[in-house]
Amino acid sequence: MTENEIIIVDSVPEEEYLRILHRALDYAFISIPFTIDRMSLNNLEKQIINIAKGRLAEGLLWFFFKHNSIKADFISCATPFYQTDKRDFLLNGLEWDQKNNFIYHEGNLLTDSNYTDLPALVPNRHTKDQWAKRTAYKFKNSRGVSFIFTFLKGADLITGQRGVPLFSINLSTEQRTLLHKISIKYNGSAQEKKPFEEDAFRRRFFESQRLNDIISVNFLPALIISAYADQRHWHLFQNTNHADFLNGTIKTKIKNSTCCIKELPSFLSLFPHLRDEIHYAKLI
User: Which of 28, 182, 194, 278 is 20 to 30 Å from 243 by CA-CA measure?
Assistant: First the structure.
């Protein structure tokens, strides 16, 4: 793909953006006891933020699809908070996973480098990781699996140092204790049956503090939609480990199957009508 095929979703109304972020955090709070700490962070707030970041990117992508006549099926892929996700959405007969990474740079948009110079990353730490699952179809009549690669700015990057993050959370002692107790009980394991009612959890969790009391939102970054990959492109990916891309714009802590974005086809190429009319976004 080329740089002028990058889609920048930068016009989501603030009220809707915050609603998507709040839903992402709500999901992160209730699902963390059933989520494995894949990054080995051993830090409750960071684990919650990582889950919420992924859900934020998914919510922004859903918003973009909804308003641009892209008929993706998110509902069929929805899973309860206590179970492992299937895929993110179905589209054009394929199962899709959104691979979102946070990038670090000055300004609202990346200017020192091209977005197409960024890496497409798929976790590949072991034989059951996301890269290995690219050949495991989870839906009947599926024609295959595709990855869509998106980016969100996570903070400024000035002389190698990251600035204030896009959002942060500050849990009360009571909230931390509640999550810690439930996490010990379920130990990051998915459950077959619902372990508790969502409303009951929320009443306990927000008894001492409300969401607006524990979250600080510093800026609302644009969602960058770049390339996609399917079985035609798997041969382009090579393993990288603890890699640094574009002078710290992205740093990874795990082993990934990796390909440069510019080597892959653009998501825009699947929906050329977006060149003529695009809502809540622009082409670079």
Answer: 28
